[in-house]
Amino acid sequence: MVSLFDLLPKDQAPKLALVQDIAARLESAKRRGFVTAGEYQKLRARLPSRSAPLTLSDLPERLARPFTEKDGTRGRIVYIVPSDGRSVYDVHYLMEWADAFREVRLPSGDVVHGTGEP
């Protein structure tokens, strides 16, 4: 199964913390004269200016379009793809696969019904 959430970077919080630490060390190195102004500018330009995690709304339209509903809602559509090593030409697997997403009961108790082409 593939969802729009799979397109967001994993473990964003620790990665952002690391980038902030690197930026702080770079600032300290600049203050202490360990890097020249030119080196500082080159290194600073390579660090992202964003300090917040990416969200579904940050994803480009072209990437998000297959997961976007007609009303613009993103993130509720999923694509069901075959498991690695399994074939959709195996009728037994195809029936098992179809049954697996025909009806999904969410933790909230809501039921989601799968649709699509075989």
**Cα-based radius of gyration, to the nearest Å:** 22 Å
- Strand order of the biggest β-sheet: 1-2
Order of helices and strands: EHHHEHEE
Structural class: mainly alpha
Mean pLDDT: 89
Q: What is the tally of beta strands?
A: 4
Name the beta content range.
5-15%
| N-to-C CA distance | 15 Å
Number of helices: 4
Shape: elongated
Percent range of helical residues: 25-40%
Write the layout of secondary structure elements.
Elements: E1 2-3, H1 12-31, H2 37-46, H3 61-64, E2 78-79, H4 91-102, E3 103-105, E4 111-113
Antiparallel strand pairs: 1-2, 3-4
Helix pairs in contact: 1-2
In short:
By secondary structure, this protein is mostly helical. The mean pLDDT is 89.
Model description:
The strands form 2 sheets. This protein has a two-stranded antiparallel ribbon with strand order 1-2. The protein is mainly alpha-helical. Helix 1 runs antiparallel to helix 2. It is elongated and about 70 Å long. The protein contains 4 helices and 4 strands, in the order βαααβαββ. The mean pLDDT is 89.
